[in-house]
């Protein structure tokens, strides 16, 4: 985010599915954060659309529950909140109804200060609604069908299909109304501060790039874990599972940023190209490079938790994995022979996303140590409590040459006084500014599905049963065959 807000052109944000969790807890609070820092113009308007029936005031009251004044002094909070909510409006209707969307456009024309207002359409509904809503929007004839001003842009949330075919079909349907140029596919991981820092860390420092290869790095491990179950989202989760929910998208994107070559120059297009080139070097994993688990009932933090199959709405014989370990090898000289391990699990012992880059060990012969010394390890903590740790070997102070492993630590909350923006703040501002580097382009999406579709289909074809692991586990047994050690 640039240090100073830049005056923006008139913009309206239309949230389709505005009665839902994502809209109320993420999108609207992020817009409020941008508004209260001066990143949105005075003419900004927010329009909510969904089937639920709300008056404008009821809608505002529902939004107000999740607005926090992170960037506003306490004394200005009430006034800023009121000014923001006055700019919020609501229209109810069916997602496949052209007439309902015509009502929405009528409301927009009445409330927007001028006729030259840019419009962002945010699809915040379950994916089953995406096509209907985009088609009905297009049928109104009010969507700008090119990238000219005033612009119309579409923001769409994962999941982008369940495999390569369904993703292509969805892309085709959306493309009838919004061109690729107008489409912003959000992967909110790319908006996270510590993920954006990967490029800076690698390419703005001299020390990393010379050792960022197979000669020095033994393996890379990307670990994602949550200490909660599916929290009532069985309808979505049971259809998708962990590989589609976080591995094929968020964690693969992180892997691409770790592995990619230096872009050929500055700018979003070249960075995207460098990532895409690396994704193309990842052969699809075979079934023996994948381990699957599913959480069973367990006692965690002093409380009994149900297993996945006991959750409401989950079939008693569901084979949907809630844990996966995947070992990928990259077909690239820089990385030949270096395993990239991705592990992801719900209902584990803590919430964290970390990248662990383990360097090759150094012989201890010089120090009379038997065997190798403990290897250096660079740990990039993406969430929560963003941090960078480097494990190094040091001499223990004293009269003997005793070596010990110690940590060089950089904790964001200690090193940086600034607030760390939520990923949605960064990404929504980028949509308004037309900056696409942190969004998933159609070709990267297709390649990501090409990597995972064969194994996803094979898992389903063979009816693979995931290994049970108890709620709150540290390292599920399922991962062990792939050398998972956290
Ligand atoms: N929540 C998150 O943090 C999060 C994070 C990443 C991605 N996402 C994705 O973002 C999208 C929205 O997430 P969400 O959590 O806000 O979803 P949600 O609450 O389930 O759905 C949003 C709204 O869509 C409508 N809706 C729900 N089910 C529907 C159905 N079967 N048919 C038609 N309309 C339906 C409901 O509004 P009405 O009944 O009023 O029409 C609901 O309030 C989903 O694609 C989700 O996968 C969410």
Can you offer a commentary on this structure?
By secondary structure, the protein is α/β, with parallel strands linked by helices. It folds into two domains: 11-157, Rossmann fold; 192-420 and 443-482, Dihydrodipicolinate Reductase, domain 2 (2-Layer Sandwich). 33% of the residues lie in helices and 22% in strands. It has twelve helices and 17 strands. The strands form three sheets. A nine-stranded mixed beta sheet has the order 16-15-14-13-7-12-11-8-17. A six-stranded parallel beta sheet has the order 3-2-1-4-5-6, with helices on both faces. A two-stranded antiparallel ribbon has the order 9-10. Helix 4 packs across helix 5 (130-139). The longest helix has 26 residues, at 234-259. The protein is globular, with a radius of gyration of 24 Å. The mean pLDDT is 93. Bound molecules: NADP nicotinamide-adenine-dinucleotide phosphate. NADP nicotinamide-adenine-dinucleotide phosphate binds next to helix 1. The site of NADP nicotinamide-adenine-dinucleotide phosphate has 19 residues, from helix 1.
């Amino acid at each position: 985010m640039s240090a100073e807000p830049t005056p923006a052109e008139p913009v309206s944000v239309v949230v389709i599915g505005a009665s839902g969790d994502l809209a109320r807890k993420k999108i609207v609070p992020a817009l409020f954060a941008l508004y209260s820092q001066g990143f949105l113009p005075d003419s900004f308007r927010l329009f909510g659309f969904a089937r639920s029936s709300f008056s404008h005031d009821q809608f505002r009251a529902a939004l107000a529950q999740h607005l926090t004044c992170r960037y506003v002094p306490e004394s200005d909070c009430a006034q800023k909140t009121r000014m923001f909510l006055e700019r919020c409006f609501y229209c109810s209707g069916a997602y496949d109804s052209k007439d309902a969307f015509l009502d929405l456009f009528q409301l927009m024309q009445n409330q927007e200060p001028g006729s030259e207002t840019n419009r962002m359409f945010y699809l915040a509904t379950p994916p089953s609604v995406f096509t209907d809503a985009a088609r009905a929007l297009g049928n109104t004839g009010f969507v700008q069908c090119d990238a000219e001003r005033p612009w119309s842009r579409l923001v769409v949330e994962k999941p982008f299909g369940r495999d390569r075919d369904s993703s292509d079909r969805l892309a085709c349907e959306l493309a009838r109304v919004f061109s690729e140029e107008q489409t912003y596919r959000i992967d909110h991981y790319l908006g996270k501060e510590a993920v954006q820092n990967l490029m800076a860390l690698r390419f703005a420092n001299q020390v990393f790039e010379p050792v960022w290869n197979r000669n020095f790095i033994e393996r890379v491990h990307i670990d994602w874990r949550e200490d909660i179950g599916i929290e009532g989202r069985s309808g979505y989760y049971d259809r998708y599972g962990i590989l589609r929910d976080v591995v094929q998208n968020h964690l693969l994107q992180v892997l691409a940023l770790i592995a990619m070559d230096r872009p050929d120059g500055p700018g979003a297009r070249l960075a995207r190209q460098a990532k895409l080139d690396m994704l193309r070097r990842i052969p699809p994993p075979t079934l023996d490079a994948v381990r699957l688990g599913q959480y069973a009932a367990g006692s965690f933090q002093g409380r009994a938790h149900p297993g996945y199959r006991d959750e409401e709405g989950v079939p008693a014989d569901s084979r949907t994995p809630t844990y996966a370990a995947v070992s990928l090898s990259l077909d690239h000289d820089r990385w030949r022979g270096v395993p990239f391990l991705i592990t992801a699990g719900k209902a584990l012992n803590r919430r964290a996303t970390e990248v662990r880059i383990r360097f090759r060990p150094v012989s201890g012969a010089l120090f009379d140590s038997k065997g190798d010394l403990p290897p250096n390890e660079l740990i990039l903590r993406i969430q929560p409590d963003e941090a960078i740790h480097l494990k190094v070997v040091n001499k223990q102070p004293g009269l003997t040459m005793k070596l010990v492993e110690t940590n060089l630590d950089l904790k964001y909350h200690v090193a940086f006084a600034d607030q760390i923006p939520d990923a949605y703040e960064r990404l929504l501002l980028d949509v308004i500014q037309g900056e696409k580097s942190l969004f998933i382009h159609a070709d990267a999406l297709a390649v990501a599905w090409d990597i995972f579709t064969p194994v996803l289909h094979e898992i389903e074809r063979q009816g693979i049963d995931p290994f049970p692991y108890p709620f709150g586990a540290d390292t599920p047994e399922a991962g062990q065959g792939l050398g998972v050690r956290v």
